[in-house]
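Please check this one:

***
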Amino acid sequence: MSSVICLLHLVLLGFWVGVPPQEAKPAEPASVDSLVQDALQAYKEGRADDAVELLNKAIGVIQEGQQKGLATFMPEPPKGWKADEIEKSSASFGSSGQSQQWIQVTRRYYPDKEGSDLHVEITLTNSPQLIQVQEAASQIYRNPQMLQLMNQDPNKKIEVFDQAPWFGWRIIEKGDSANGIAYCKSRMVTVNVSQGDQAALDLFWKAIDFKKMATK
């Protein structure tokens, strides 16, 4: 029963720690309110399974609203490019004391011409727990000596992206892949480019409004 109470508290307090208020607003407030109230009633009546199911539905509505908010930051295809529809996903798992949550939107872009295998995939993720992992990994890239050592490979170039409050890195491997990762607060941006095309990486990296994402 105690886990149900904790879950109720998480939903009533906004559920997502570290998500800006406008993203945390549910897409259908009345639906969330109704689901939470029904869950409370089910819990009081001793129907714990029903209470958990109703809370999971409420969480789903909240996450849907978060996904829509995150998707607004996905850049439109630049001139000469086309794109698939934005894909959305979310998950929450673990106990109340060690819960893990994330929401994510992804879009793939292609040159608007026949015969090209080049593609770019952008993913925007909101997960406080995932950012903690990236912060630990970033210590390598924050070390000038380590960065210099890694850049001794003539076929690989590593660049640090330090645009407060964002921090990240871009890795370009000739003829293989080019990718960039940057994180800020609870958000993370990843850009993956096939064929090691740095020009495409630069194009889409510049198309992302990092400043706006950091303030919204």
